[in-house]
Amino acid sequence: MTAETSQTLDRGLRVLKLLADTDHGLTVTELSHKLGVNRTVVYRLLATLEQHALVRRDLGGRARVGLGVLGLGRQVHPLVREAAMPALRSLAEDIGATAHLTLVDGAEALAVAVVEPTWTDYHVAYRAGFRHPLDRGAAGKAILSARQQPSADPGYTLTHSELEAGASGAAAPLLGVTGVEGSVGVVMLADVVPERVGARVVDAAREVAEALR
User: Fold this and answer.
1) Percentage of residues in the chain with pLDDT exceeding 90?
2) The overall pTM is greater than 0.90
3) Where is the HTH iclR-type domain (predicted)?
4) Exposure of 196 by Cβ count < 10 A (0-12 exposed, 13-18 middle, 19+ buried)?
């Protein structure tokens, strides 16, 4: 800690991060041990976070992340979209296909940024705001592949005619970005995705991930 930082705020943010990393919540005692502070301090932190709906406690007294974080999370999309645009533009122009950034939204994949190529005679129309199940389409399947291989680089995912007849997709997950689960990909009217596209999509996903770190 430095003179310019707040110890209380730092502890509160650490509480949120600890709770976000667990599916079953944490008790006051567990938080006390992890933070290295006494239980009274933890009680005060939780009470303050509860007032802002950032933390909730279940009937057993375990603290969990509250629904208030959803309101904060909605503001992340514009920031992520802005950071991803240069890489998406480069990808769309290079491949000649519609490029997109897709993030997880509940049980669905949500396209938050889309760039169409400027020089092609035709391309797939794909709009920001488009949703689809995570287990359909290259974008969602790339995200699921990263979940299944958290310690490895899953490469890229290819699909054909899963979301739109005659369209093929290629996507690679965003890796190493805390708090952001998503993928970068392209969709094109083709029966087979050209070989170089997969590697190019992986590079674009890496560029976006670096911009978000």
Assistant:
1) 71
2) no
3) 6-67
4) exposed
